[in-house]
C-alpha cells in the first residue's frame, strides 16, 4: 500500500463534513485540484469560491472544472487576502470548508510564493466566513525560500486562536523541511 499524501488526508477530513449544498473556498487555486474536489463534494446545489493571483492558476482551474459546467464555482484572479472584500457579507458564518495549499504554483514561477502577511490576512478573513464546526486545511511547505517563515507565522497565529482546534499532521518523511498539514476546526460556541 502506498503512503497517503497530506493532500489526500486533507480531502478525507473534508469529506467527513462537506455535504451537497454547502459552500466552500479554495483560497489558493493552484492547478485546480482542490477546487474540483470541493465542487464535487458540494454538488450542483452548493458553491465554491476560489482565489489565486496567477492567471495561469485561474486558467488551469477553469480547464479542470470544464467537465462540470453545472457546478457553481466563482474564481477571483486576486490574492487570497482579498476574500473579505470580495465575498458577500451574507456568507459570514456559512462557509463549511476552506482549503489553503501554500508555497508556489506547481509547474509555474517558483519565485511567486504565498507570503506570511497575506496568508494570515486570508486566514483571518476565512475565519469570519467559517461556520461553527467548519474546517480549514492548510498544506504548508517549509522547504522552499520563504516557506519556513510562513510555517512559523502560521504556527504562531494558531497559538493565538482560542476558537480553533488544530491537528498538525507531518509528512511521512520526517525532515525539518518536509510538508505539513494543519487541520483547523472552528469550535462551537455552544460547548
From TrEMBL:
Record key words, sorted: Methyltransferase, Transferase
GO biological process, one term: methylation
GO molecular function list: methyltransferase activity
InterPro entries membership: MnmM_MeTrfase (IPR010719), SAM-dependent_MTases_sf (IPR029063)
Name under which the protein is recorded: Methyltransferase domain-containing protein
Amino acid at each position: 500500500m502506498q503512503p497517503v499524501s497530506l493532500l489526500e488526508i486533507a480531502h478525507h477530513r473534508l469529506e467527513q463534513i462537506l455535504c451537497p449544498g454547502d459552500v466552500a473556498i479554495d483560497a489558493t487555486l493552484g492547478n485546480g485540484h482542490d477546487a474540483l474536489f470541493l465542487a464535487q463534494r458540494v454538488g450542483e446545489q452548493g458553491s465554491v469560491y476560489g482565489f489565486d493571483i496567477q492567471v495561469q492558476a485561474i486558467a488551469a482551474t477553469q480547464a479542470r472544472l470544464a467537465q462540470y459546467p453545472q457546478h457553481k464555482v466563482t474564481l477571483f484572479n486576486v490574492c487570497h487576502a482579498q476574500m473579505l472584500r470580495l465575498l458577500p457579507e451574507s456568507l459570514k458564518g456559512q462557509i463549511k470548508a476552506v482549503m489553503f495549499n501554500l508555497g508556489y504554483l506547481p509547474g509555474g514561477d517558483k519565485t511567486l510564493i504565498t507570503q506570511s502577511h497575506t496568508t494570515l490576512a486570508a486566514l483571518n478573513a476565512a475565519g469570519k466566513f467559517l461556520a461553527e464546526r467548519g474546517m480549514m486545511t492548510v498544506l504548508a511547505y517549509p522547504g522552499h525560500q520563504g516557506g519556513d517563515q510562513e510555517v512559523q507565522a502560521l504556527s504562531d497565529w494558531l497559538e493565538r486562536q482560542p476558537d480553533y482546534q488544530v491537528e498538525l499532521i507531518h509528512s511521512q518523511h520526517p525532515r525539518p523541511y518536509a510538508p505539513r498539514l494543519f487541520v483547523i476546526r472552528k469550535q462551537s460556541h455552544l460547548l
